Amino acid sequence: MALDIGALVLSHPWRWAVLKAVRSLGLPDWAVGAGFVRNTVWDHLHDYAEPAPLADVDVLYFDPVDISREREAALEAQLRAALPDVPWSVRNQARMHLRNGDDPYKDTEDALRYWLETATCVAVRLQDDGGVAVIAPYGTEDLLGLRSGPTPRGMERYPAYLERMRTKNWPERWPKVRVAGL
Questions:
Q1: Rounded to the nearest 10 degrees, what angle do helices 13-23 and 69-82 cross at?
Q2: Distance CA 77, CA 122 (A)
Q3: How many CB atoms lie within 10 A of CB 61?
Q4: What's the pLDDT tens digit per position in 132-178?
Q5: 88: buried, middle or exposed (CB in 10 Å: 19+, 13-18, 0-12)?
Q6: Residue 137, class by beta-carbon neighbours within 10 Å (0-12 exposed, 13-18 middle, 19+ buried)?
């Protein structure tokens, strides 16, 4: 039986609270991704009781109407007021292509396609019915298989992918993880 990523995320009260806080903002096309999901899955697959610390909680949304950094900062402040101990990082994917030198993204899922490694290109969204939608443009096979490799964008920017993988050094925390190129 395959691991249910949504159920796993919701089984952690802290992650449930994070998703509820983000959903309360009413952001268009929002999700929480990267280490928030990856670490949860890999900690579970390593039978770790203590969760890996997160440098930040990546909140993504897509709103072409207001692409200002000030809007993102205001949203981070709202989230900090709700959950002050969370290291929030809120980014409107409708503007991130400018920073990254990419073509404009169509939506949040399209923005994930430009991330460098497969295991990180997974995000979740708390739905109104309490379920979790999983957004994974490259699937979840690598994440669930304890692997990470370059996405097509990661192949185009292979030196940046390799540097990121060396810096992250995931196999130190999760010894079963295999990273392509290392």
A1: 130
A2: 25
A3: 24
A4: 999 999 999 999 999 999 999 999 999 999 999 999 999 999 999 99
A5: buried
A6: middle
For helices 13-23 and 35-45, give the axis angle rounded to 10 degrees.
160
Q: What is the spatial distance between Cα 50 and Cα 178, in angstroms, rounded to a whole number?
A: 21
Domains of the chain: 5-144 (3.30.460)
pLDDT tens sequence across 56-85: 999 999 999 999 999 999 999 999 999 999
